[in-house]
Amino acid sequence: MHDELRRVAISFPLPGLEINTITADERLQVWVNPSTEILSRETLLAHARGAHGVLVTPGDGPIDDAWMQAAGDSLRVISCFSVGVDYVDLAAAGRRQILVGNTPGATTEPTADITWLLLLGAARNIRRASNTLETGWTGIKPDDDYGLRLVNQTLLVIGAGQIGTAVARRATGWGMRILYVARSLKTAIEADPICATRVTLEEGLAQADIISLHVPLTAETTHMIAKPQLDLMKRTAVLINTSRGAVVDESALIDALEKRRIHAAGIDVYENEPVIPPRLMRLNNAFLLPHIGTATHDDRSEMTHMATENLLAGIQGRRLPYAVSSD
């Protein structure tokens, strides 16, 4: 394998200079999707078949066992342009001895920023306020009601990894009491200055003014926020989701928002992306963004760097610098 021309398929023209470096490498036969359109499964497979490595995005999923089989026995690495890898069958990759890498770290701070943008926008009814300007604003009035006070409120972080901890760190500026839900104790979020307290999901939902989701999508976390969990929340609660859409039962959330069972939601991810239910789009207590958590030039360029590092390491038979376990 070290003497042969190694084939690489890259499913999207990614930002950053690393792609140009790879395409200029005479030891590699590289195909890069020239279009910014997400490829169909069949088109991507046509270019990935026989490749030693592929670089894919969440829109390319599912990268399942059948996809890997069709790609062929030469495939050695799947490099994901994302931190979440729910669109890749890790068990199948493990059985086939295919390495899988992702882009952790690069997504932490921009996603935490977007979480706070959503938090502020949802809590302060920014969507309704913006609509008022468009429909005809008549000036300020004493009975204007554009949301909730955030200082000294209680924030519940569900999933206290790097992103959840970064969100909690920002909350200290608002003097918030911080609770968290995690499978194990997390020293980083419990340490000063965050000083968070670990609680059960049920305890946290009942106490929190703001609930922010930061878990990967797994069988265990799919619809972890559904009607029973929404019913535990305060009527003034605000739910923020920047993790994966299917962590929330979207239909149950829409019902809760329509009935004003909770105050508002801030959402950057959707259960069936890119489709957004019309009922959700119509709600003025749903502050919505088109999955832009990591969409800054600097952060996407860093993600490209990490993804290409994984790709090159995999086709060269080296340990991936940002490897995902197949366990």
Task: Write a structural description.
With 327 residues, the chain is an alpha/beta fold. It has two domains: 6-106 and 297-315, Rossmann fold (3-Layer(aba) Sandwich), CATH 3.40.50.720; 108-288, 3-Layer(aba) Sandwich (Rossmann fold). It is 35% helix and 15% strand. It has helices at residues 18-23, 41-48, 65-71, 90-95, 108-123, 126-135, 162-171, 187-190, 201-207, 227-232, 250-258, 278-282, 297-315, and strands at 6-10, 28-32, 53-56, 77-80, 99-101, 154-158, 177-181, 197-198, 210-213, 238-241, 264-267, 286-288. The protein has a seven-stranded parallel sheet, with helices on both faces. Helix 11 links the parallel strand 10 (238-241) and strand 11. Helix 5 (108-123) crosses helix 7.
Quick overview:
The protein has 327 residues and is an alpha/beta fold. It has helices spanning 18-23, 41-48, 65-71, 90-95, 108-123, 126-135, 162-171, 187-190, 201-207, 227-232, 250-258, 278-282, 297-315; strands at residues 6-10, 28-32, 53-56, 77-80, 99-101, 154-158, 177-181, 197-198, 210-213, 238-241, 264-267, 286-288.
